[in-house]
Amino acid sequence: MPDGLLAARAAEGDEEAFSVLVLRHRLSLLALARSLLGNAEDAEEAVQDAFVSAWRRLPEYRHGAEFHTWMHRITVNRCLTMRRRRPSTLSLDIVVEPAAGDPGSQPSRSAEQQAATVALSHALADLDAGQRVCWVLREMQGLSYREIACVTRTSEPTVRGRLSRARRSLQDTMGPWR
Hints:
sigma factor activity, Rna Polymerase Sigma Factor, Chain: A
């Protein structure tokens, strides 16, 4: 069943329809929140708060808009609010362990990858909020420029500019890791 129809049914009080939407979008929103907040616990809290907010605001949902875009917007807003209220912490729980026999499984290579991951996390944390949100939505979530503009309530040229500045900054910061 399409998200729009599920959202319409949920707006009428159908909890089962909303549960389907939660199951359908929870993992991608957790990945988004973890990228923006830096740790799993804060991400879990942000996504839970976003779904509670969405449940309450379903009657306001414009059914012409994509549900996932609307949920991204709510989640991004919650993450930005949380970042303003408390200092962010960086987590390495997103580091993937290399498989045995993989050249990356050598201790020196593994240490180098972890150091690069930490450097990238710090570089992302140093971006301004607008640039970081646009970069995460594009590079990690795969959203189109139009979808990012919708989520950030800006224009596509603004999104392109923020992405360009974010990429340039990350390229400068991560230059030694090339």
